[in-house]
Write a structure and sequence with these properties.
- By secondary structure, this protein is an alpha+beta fold.
- The protein has a single domain, classed as FAD/NAD(P)-binding domain, CATH 3.50.50.
- The protein has helices spanning 18-29, 56-64, 94-97, 108-121, 221-229, 232-240, 290-304, 314-343, 349-362, 364-376; strands at residues 11-14, 34-38, 51-55, 74-76, 78-83, 89-93, 103-107, 125-128, 131-134, 140-145, 148-153, 156-159, 171-186, 193-199, 202-209, 212-220, 249-264, 269-270, 273-275, 281-282.
- Helix 1 (18-29) packs parallel to helix 4, helix 1 packs parallel to helix 7 and helix 7 packs antiparallel against helix 8 (314-343).
- The longest helix has 30 residues, at 314-343.
- Bound molecules: flavin-adenine dinucleotide.
């Protein structure tokens, strides 16, 4: 911080979700001083029903933060990719990639609880019931609590708010799809296999979670009302109609739903502020990339700010934005391509998609590239 600055020597993080907490821990580990603000009252945040597929790279990062919920994570040994209307199935396997697992399935709530405990252990200050609004001057913001409004300032404000407001998005795709989530029992034990099944209505993902499958079923927005009102037997019948016999589901519980879309900021830094993870880019969950990408954002930011006297310095923020460009844009494009390409029912697309899957099945280097991309993010680029 410069001698003439009037800013408090600190970093403010907006959002105590999994990303805000992971960012706080990564920065604290690098010697920075942080405070977190969250709009929800303590212990009043809604339950997060999302079940996350996390890469080996994310596990490595969470382990470094002492926040990996090891006992609650189910390893993925194989991912089967196919389309309901096609003939080709391709498989990515941990054995072929010489890794212990292609990824891990863990409840977002378990990740959040583990990070919260670790933040408490590290003595990180979190103010709940504190809604933050950006101020007009760099590093300034207002905090609204039950006691009223007050002004605060920090050298750097990091937004981990979990979304990009429509007005702030430079790139926006409404897939007109919602994700329906549930847990379901596999008709036969899943043996740690995950399935990504592309159907004419949208992708259907089955993730091994304990002895069950965590299901992410993307359906057209026009069908959401009907399906939310329908009972479990309707869900099971409609999902099973898209699945081969060996992957059929039986019991079903813990239903939830989320609207889907892509929203991206092109500028992820501003004067003394930075947007991370979902606050910088909100992705379709088709390839399970959102939080994986967000953790890489947090880690790179912490690395960039190591030993920085002024963590909000423009040159540092520019360096951070440059370092994240390739990973952010390539992950968003890849996710967008899958979400559009495999949900579209344009004539001729089914054989084309089969060709893509066939190329993956028959070309090990391509398969290896895709697997490593999912495991490690942009580090997989040659
Ligand atoms: C259906 C679905 C499936 C997904 N599956 C995967 C997957 O398999 N793998 C994967 O990597 N990712 C996946 N994702 C993405 C992943 O869930 C998110 O990236 C991640 O959970 C977001 O965490 P977060 O901390 O950024 O946001 P959140 O959990 O939304 O937390 C944001 C916090 O910020 C607070 N906040 C917001 N605004 C303010 C404000 N103005 N002032 C103060 N506090 C504020 C909120 O109260 C909240 O606590 C999926 C997403 C969906 C929708």
């Amino acid at each position: 911080m410069s001698a003439t600055s009037t800013l408090t020597p600190s970093i403010a993080i907006v959002g105590a979700g999994p990303l805000g907490l992971a960012t706080a821990l990564a920065l604290t580990r690098r010697g920075q001083q942080v405070r977190i603000f969250d709009a929800h009252a303590a212990n009043a945040a809604p339950q997060d029903y999302r079940i996350l597929a996390l890469s080996q790279g994310s596990r490595d990062l969470l382990e470094l933060l002492d926040a990996w919920p090891a006992r609650l994570a189910t390893p993925i040994s194989t991912i089967h990719v196919s389309q309901a209307t096609g003939f080709v199935q391709t498989r990515l396997s941990a054995r072929e990639q010489h890794v212990a697992a292609l990824g891990y399935v863990v409840a977002a709530q378990a990740v959040l609880d583990t990070l919260r405990r670790q933040a408490q252990t590290q003595g990180i200050a979190i103010e709940y019931g504190a809604l933050v609004e950006p101020g007009t001057e760099a590093g300034h913001f207002t905090v609204s609590t039950a006691d009223g409004k007050r002004h605060e300032q920090a050298e750097l404000v990091i937004y981990c708010e979990g979304g990009v407001p429509e007005a702030a998005a430079d790139l926006q795709h409404d897939y007109a799809q919602h994700a329906l989530l549930c847990l379901a029992s596999p008709a036969t034990p899943h043996a740690n296999h995950a399935h990504e099944r592309f159907t004419p209505r949208g992708p259907l993902a089955l993730l091994p979670y304990g002895n069950e499958y965590a299901v992410v079923w993307s359906v057209p927005a026009s069908e959401v009302e009907r399906l939310l009102a329908a009972d479990d037997t309707v869900w099971l019948a409609e999902m099973n109609a898209c699945l081969p016999a060996a992957e059929r589901l039986s019991g079903l519980h813990e239903r939830a739903h989320y609207p889907l879309g892509l929203r991206m900021r092109s500028q992820i830094t501003g004067p003394r502020c930075v947007w991370l993870g979902n606050a910088a880019q909100t992705l379709h969950p088709v390839a399970g990339q959102g939080f994986n990408l967000a953790l890489r954002d947090a880690w790179t930011l912490a690395e960039t700010l190591t030993a920085a006297d002024d963590p909000g310095a423009e040159a540092l923020l520019r360096r951070y934005a440059r370092a994240r460009r390739l990973d952010r844009t390539s992950t968003a494009r890849f996710t967008d391509l899958l979400a559009w390409g495999f949900a579209s029912s344009l004539p001729g697309l089914t054989p084309l998609r089969d060709l893509g899957l066939l190329a993956l099945e028959t070309l090990p280097p391509l398969r290896q590239f895709l697997a490593r991309r999912m495991i490690f993010g942009a580090r997989a680029w040659p």
